[in-house]
Amino acid sequence: MTKNDLDTFWKSDAEAKLENCFNSRAAQVSLGIRMSEECVYSELNEPGDPWNIAALPLPHRIELNKRYNEKAVQTVGIPLLPEKFPPPEAIYPPIKRIGEVFGGIYETGYRTGEWLHHKKLHTPEDLSNQLDLINIMRADGYRGLKQFIYPENWEQEKKRIREEFGLQPPLLRHIRGPVTLATSLFGLENLSYLAIDNTELFIRFGNTIKQVILAMAELSDREAGYTNSNFIHGFSFADDDCSLFTPEMYHVFGYPVLKAVFGKYSPEAEDMRFQHSDSAMAHLLPQLGSLNLNGCNFGPTVLVEEIREFLPCARIDGCIAPFTFMNNDRDFIRTEVKRDCEAVKKTGTRGLNVFTAGSINDGSSLESMLTIMEAISEFGTYP
User: Fold this and answer.
1) Contact present, 277 and 239 (Cβ < 8 Å)
2) The pTM is what?
3) Helices marked H in 22-123 — which ranges?
4) pLDDT digits (tens, 9 = 90+) for 164-219
5) In what order do the strands lie in the sheet with 174-176?
6) Residue 261 and residue 221: Cα distance in Å, rounded?
7) Half-sphere exposure at residue 98, Cβ-oriented, CA atoms within 13 angstroms
């Protein structure tokens, strides 16, 4: 693509993004891919851990991103990675996450990413005792939960950061989904047996997850100065493992969680109701459709026509397989982009935001992004 072609593409892309990618005046489908910081290593031929970018010294992180952006401008026409970050003293101290409320441990390993596990949660009795502990923590309203989640210096740091930088504490509006959380903590086999052998405890587990998510989100609102009648709308889940549940299991365990959280934080039609599940979870589409999702990112086997049947108003972030993008095979990339563009036009709708059906991994190249842009220009123009 020439410079003029690139400029024209990005102008059209900005129009395609309007109205949640349903802009009836858009000339082409939208491109959601903006790469990720993981990609700096392969692109720049630099050593490093793509799973732990945040651990880099900030000057080195910025230097890598600047070098990457210089190459991006030459290749695809625009910079893609951030070059400005808040200074360390403006960042709120870390708080405990939902897995830790359930007694779990988050770990990160080189080229293995982050995983959540629980060392002692193996039997129904273990699980029941853990849920009892959570009930005790929540018995005095938000005091016990706040005491557990927030560090000792929280109030001091909150006051300082507000005064020095005018920044409020971050809100909880995205979280690991209920099934992925549960399988990470208790194991898929244990959870599956529980659904059959102890339905009451199975449902109680899901209900406790729902209560904790709502409590943590409301606690984050309080810390940022919002109230039950005045808060930031929208919520999203990342629930890869939901594919492992039958529709019946999901209906009594995962579905009530999303319904309650969306009911609280996404009550209006335009409020974000988003689910990421990069897995083969098409059998759950009827239930997710009843939740009126307006955004989704599903696995590479869950394709546009099937999604659109059950989610008519959802922006579809997909459906390029992450390994297709990472392998940088031009022909495979063009084939998948063509498939998705022609599929959305066949449905007579819009709302396709070309993206990977999952994460953008180290190894995915700028040249492959350019290939996607060229394919959109060729196959993704609306009639």
Assistant:
1) yes
2) 0.95
3) 40-44, 58-76, 98-101
4) 999 999 999 999 999 999 999 999 999 999 999 999 999 999 999 999 999 999 99
5) 30-31, 352-354, 315-317, 295-298, 273-277, 235-238, 174-176
6) 14
7) 26
